[in-house]
UniProtKB/TrEMBL annotation:
The keyword Membrane does not apply. InterPro entries: Cas3-like_dom (IPR054712), Cas3_C (IPR041372), CRISPR-assoc_Cas3_HD (IPR006483), CRISPR-assoc_Cas3_HD_sf (IPR038257), DEAD_box_RNA_helicases (IPR050547), Helicase_Cas3_CRISPR-ass_core (IPR006474), P-loop_NTPase (IPR027417). Coiled coil: none annotated. NCBIfam families: cas3_core, cas3_HD. PANTHER family: CRISPR-ASSOCIATED ENDONUCLEASE_HELICASE CAS3, DEAD-BOX ATP-DEPENDENT RNA HELICASE 47, MITOCHONDRIAL. The keyword Nuclease applies. The gene is cas3. It comes from Streptomyces coeruleoprunus. In the central section; belongs to the CRISPR-associated helicase Cas3 family. In the N-terminal section; belongs to the CRISPR-associated nuclease Cas3-HD family. Residues 41-237 form the HD Cas3-type domain. This is CRISPR-associated helicase Cas3. It comes from the Bacteria. Keywords: Antiviral defense, ATP-binding, Helicase, Hydrolase, Metal-binding, Nuclease, Nucleotide-binding.
Length: 980
């Protein structure tokens, strides 16, 4: 067979068909079937068999230069050692359903020669959206042949959904409706042509016949999902008319030609994988000591050693204090896991955009240590990456646009349901519009910068190394269109989730679903947290093991860790689950420090009391961090503080700053107060922040003043206090102190909370936090306590466990049980709300195939909707702030943008988008109102990056009215909303 294949791949498809004994009439008919119409393919028809071979050739390049060794090994196993050939076949056969009347009739010009060749059809539904889609038609045509010729229903059952789902949705078998004339056509001519398309393609790639292509084993469902995504990837690349010009003459179609085209396209697009074959480190700790240049702390060493000890890929949960160096240890563990198990890259998931930026820099340096050229394969996946200076510097140095030229960047194409690769000509006929950027241009012939292709909508995770918000991981667990493409980006990687405790109960349902699929796919996962409740640790282990064992209940209790820090490891081996925790107590790198906890009762909105306390505490120097739970409160504290002599010494950081200001201030705080600050640390500084300061905000402050929050989040905020060793502090602030505010004494001694705090966190969590604070600080109505306070970090696991445990911690008069019942009811409702969007229902988890995965359809139509799917908070929208000026408009920084807002220069576009701000959720309805809502400026219409952006136009006085509220933007305070 191999010798025959070497000869036949050189033949044209016409010669091959004749050699296979097809009649001249059959050859003529198959030679006219089109796959890409001239109208939508750069003016040149591309024949169906040409596209199938192009896709197979792309798949072959992907096999050599993109697939991880682990995946190649699995495909070799299920194909009897013919993994490359089988991967080519399954990727190329995806479009066989285009050989049916429903598709061939879509374009009248292309249909005419098909009819003339003898392939006729009768009346089709007038509404083309009611016609059969070619992906489902392909499965309807192929499935009975697979059953008959493979002689194995089980093999056919998991293969046909890969064909049916290549446009993003997996139908049920009942939806195939075999025998429909739209699919089969009329008469023997159609049946012969359809069989010939499958047989000729199968023979062209190297199999003797369809029976020869039967796999000898099966992938599990998670592996099938990832394979489906890779089929989509190969199809999208082969569908790019700029890379694969049309071939209208079947005599010019051959596998040899397709291979040349695929190789050239891969080079032009600048695509590649990651490590490919990563060498196993000779020294067990060299990933830490040599690669990351750190002197290993005990907790870091424990995580890496546990990575060495796992016999198979599994789940690792690392719990260690804030500032312990968990992320570096996780990267070192990722290297060990990747080298041992044949993985090709890493995805690091962070809780927010703000925390993703510093992590991107850290991962970038780590990847460079393997190969400097790999820096171009590190993607930053969030909508504000254009404002990251390191990201832009790499792109500018490599000679490419920092946001791609295809209009496909996440923050740009996220505004479109489909993009130029994901929607094809028949999608447009079915009401799914194509979207191409007017500013697109052909990629350079030779380029060593990041591949723009990977920056497109839904494709970011396909990059070998990626850092981004955890939403990208959660999206891969939603029942949404093209979910397989996202999951394909996770297979073959090590997945690291930092600050995993930050996922609320709604988001956690998607995280648990993702862990089930990753467990079945044998993707190693490392979860990091400083404040993880024990119940969540158990839930994460259960989810991963249920996937690894393909069962609804793994039933593997996690042993109580011996101490803190600790590492929990879980995996499935020979059909049995294993979960272990650190057997001996692992010492933290620094001794626990007594931290004094004090009350500062205050629920006023004017900020005067907090400002007065700050002035007194840092009168003789020092750095104070004030964390409050509401933007309005942060702005009030800033106003009160700056009017009394602190001008220039205060930094305000919150979510209503425009993108440019928020990035600048975050970078400044990290530079002045981070671990490398040294002599640049200011004599006196006050940082006023909202919850942005809770996570991955590596600053060191002398004093913390914080609104009350649930205990785990309160401890995260305390993690910024006296964080770095060797920092010089004023004599009055040498001991760590926390002043807890945002609470006041209520009736019968029961605490009263800020309304915003209750809305965000719920009363029960705040009551329990208040009770635990009172144990350390004394009663709320008492004088300052001389109690011992908390010992940080040794008390962290105990406090978190008590806060989320079953035992009551509040005094009886606080009536905790009523608050707890209300909290439990809301949590259950949020879990139920998430279930309708999860990728699978619990009762279907054991199903071995992808058939019917989208049982209720795709639940999100656009990326914007998808963000709302995985986060159930109050919806909010983003707007670009522009200022009306005499005769036109200006960007937020004063840059002139034209009479109608028109922008042609990329630098000006960047400045303009630097004014993007997220509006408070309560303004969403007014911003989206049909008659009075925010819309793009006239000059933005048709611009690939601006045409869907909402403009918040401030008049010459600096204000705008939205609904009943007056809006303004202050360069220091950020967005200011005054209620009407």
């Amino acid at each position: 067979m191999e010798r025959a294949a070497l000869v036949e791949h050189m033949r044209s498809i016409v010669d091959l068909m004749r050699a296979m004994g097809l009649s001249e009439e059959a050859v003529a008919r198959v030679s006219r079937l089109w796959g890409k119409s001239a109208a939508r393919n750069g003016g040149r028809t591309h024949l169906l068999l040409g596209h199938l071979l192009d896709t197979a050739a792309v798949a072959e390049v992907m096999w050599d230069r993109y697939l991880s060794p682990a995946l190649r090994g699995r495909l070799e196993g299920i194909s009897g050692g013919r993994g490359r050939l089988w991967f080519m076949w399954i990727c190329g056969i995806h479009d066989c359903g285009k050989a049916c009347p429903a598709f061939q009739a879509l374009d009248e010009a292309e249909a005419a020669p098909v009819k003339a060749a003898g392939l006729a059809w009768g009346r089709l539904p007038a509404d083309r959206r009611q016609r059969w889609r070619h992906d489902v038609a392909g499965a309807a045509l192929l499935r009975p042949r697979l059953v008959a010729e493979w002689g194995c229903v089980e093999s056919a059952a998991w293969v046909w959904p890969l064909v049916a789902g290549h446009h993003g949705v997996f139908p049920s078998v009942q939806g195939l409706k075999p025998g429909h004339r739209e699919v089969q056509g009329r008469g023997a001519a159609w049946e012969q042509a359809q069989r010939a398309v499958v047989d000729v393609f199968t023979r062209a790639v190297g199999f003797e016949d369809l029976a020869d292509a039967r796999p000898v084993g099966a992938l599990n469902k998670a592996e099938q999902l990832a394979l489906s995504g890779l089929i989509v990837m190969a199809d999208w690349i082969a569908s790019d008319s700029e890379q694969f010009e049309g071939l209208a003459d079947a005599r010019n179609v051959s596998l040899a030609g397709a291979r040349q085209r695929a190789e050239a396209a891969w080079q032009r697009l600048g695509l590649r994988g990651g490590w490919n074959e990563l060498a196993i480190p000779e020294d067990r700790l060299s990933p830490l000591t040599g690669r990351l240049m750190v002197t290993p702390r005990a907790s870091q060493q424990e995580l890496v050693e546990r990575a060495w000890s796992m016999p198979v890929p599994g789940l690792m949960v690392a719990e260690a204090p804030m500032g312990e160096g968990k992320t570096k240890a996780a990267l070192a563990a990722a290297e060990v896991l990747a080298a041992r198990f044949g993985l090709d890259g890493v995805f690091v998931a962070m809780p927010t955009q703000a925390t993703s930026d510093p992590m991107y820099t850290q991962v970038l340096e780590w990847v460079r240590s393997f190969d400097p050229e790999l820096e171009a394969q590190v993607a930053l996946l969030h909508g504000k990456r254009r404002f990251n200076p390191t990201w832009r510097e790499i792109w500018d140095r490599k000679g490419a646009s920092a946001d791609g030229e295809t209009g496909g960047d996440d923050e740009l194409s996220a505004m479109d349901p489909f993009d130029a690769y994901g929607a094809t000509e028949e999608d447009a006929e079915y009401g799914m519009p194509l979207w191409t950027s007017e500013g697109s241009r052909r990629p350079q012939e030779e380029r060593d910068g990041p591949a723009r292709w990977f920056l497109g909508n839904k494709r970011g995770l396909l990059t070998a190394f990626a850092v981004g918000t955890v939403d990208h991981l959660l999206h891969a667990a939603t029942r949404t269109r093209h979910v397989m493409l996202r999951f394909a980006g996770l297979l073959g990687k090590v997945v690291v989730v930092d600050e995993v405790h930050a996922a609320d109960v709604y988001m956690r349902q998607f995280l648990l679903e993702a862990l089930r699929w990753l467990g079945q796919a044998k993707v190693p996962v490392v979860l990091l947290s400083a404040t993880l409740p024990p119940a969540q640790r158990q839930a994460f282990v259960d989810a991963y093991l249920s996937g690894a064992l393909s069962t609804a209940d793994a039933g593997c209790p996690v042993p109580e860790p011996a101490g803190y820090p600790c590492v929990t490891v879980a995996y499935a081996l020979k059909g049995k689950s294993v979960a272990t925790s650190s057997r001996e107590a692992v010492p933290s790198w620094r001794a626990s420090m007594p931290t004094r906890i004090e009350w500062l009762p205050d629920i006023a909105q004017d900020g005067e009391l907090l400002a007065a306390v700050v002035r007194n505490e840092v009168a003789d120097g020092g750095v104070a961090l004030v964390v409050v739970n509401q933007v309005d409160r942060a702005q009030a504290v800033h106003r009160a503080l700056t009017k009394s002599g602190f001008e220039g010494q205060v930094r305000l950081l919150h979510g209503r700053l425009c993108s440019a200001h928020r990035a600048e201030r975050t970078e400044e705080c990290l530079r002045l107060l981070g671990p490398e600050a040294g002599d640049t640390r200011p004599y006196r500084m006050v940082v006023i922040a909202t919850q942005l300061a809770e996570q991955s905000f590596d600053v060191d402050v002398d004093l913390l003043i914080t609104d009350l929050a649930p205990v785990d989040l309160l401890l995260q905020r305390i993690g910024r206090l006296h964080r770095h060793s060797g920092t010089r502090r004023p004599s009055a602030l040498t001991e760590p102190r926390v002043l807890v505010t945002g609470v006041a004494l209520g009736d019968r001694g029961r605490p009263r909370f800020l309304p915003a705090s209750k809305k965000i966190y719920g009363e029960w969590a705040l009551l329990r936090a208040a009770a635990l604070v009172a144990e350390a600080a004394g009663p709320l109505d008492g004088e300052a306590s001389q109690r011992a306070g908390w010992s940080i970090p040794s008390d962290v696991p105990r406090l978190v466990a008590r806060a989320y445990g079953e035992a009551e911690v509040c005094p009886p008069e606080w009536e905790e049980s009523a608050a707890h019942e209300e909290w439990r009811s809301k949590e259950q409702q949020r879990e139920n709300n998430a279930e309708s969007f999860l990728l699978t229902r619990p009762r279907e988890w054991g199903s071995p195939t992808l058939e019917g995965l989208h049982y209720a359809g795709s639940r999100a139509a656009s990326e914007e909707d998808l963000d709302a799917v995985v986060r159930d908070g109050q919806r909010s929208v983003e707007a670009v702030i522009v200022r009306r000026s005499a005769g036109g408009y200006r960007a937020i920084d004063g840059t002139w943008i034209g009479v109608h807002g028109e922008v042609d220069d990329e630098t000006v576009v960047g400045r303009l988008l630097g004014g993007t701000v997220r509006l408070p959720g309560r303004l969403t309805e007014a911003a989206e109102a049909k008659e009075t809502g925010l819309v793009p400026l006239p000059g933005w219409v048709g611009h690939p990056w601006l045409r869907y952006a909402r403009a918040l136009v401030l008049d010459e006085g600096g204000t705008a009215v939205l609904g009943e509220d007056q809006i303004s933007y202050d360069d220091v305070l950020g967005l200011v909303v005054e209620r009407g």
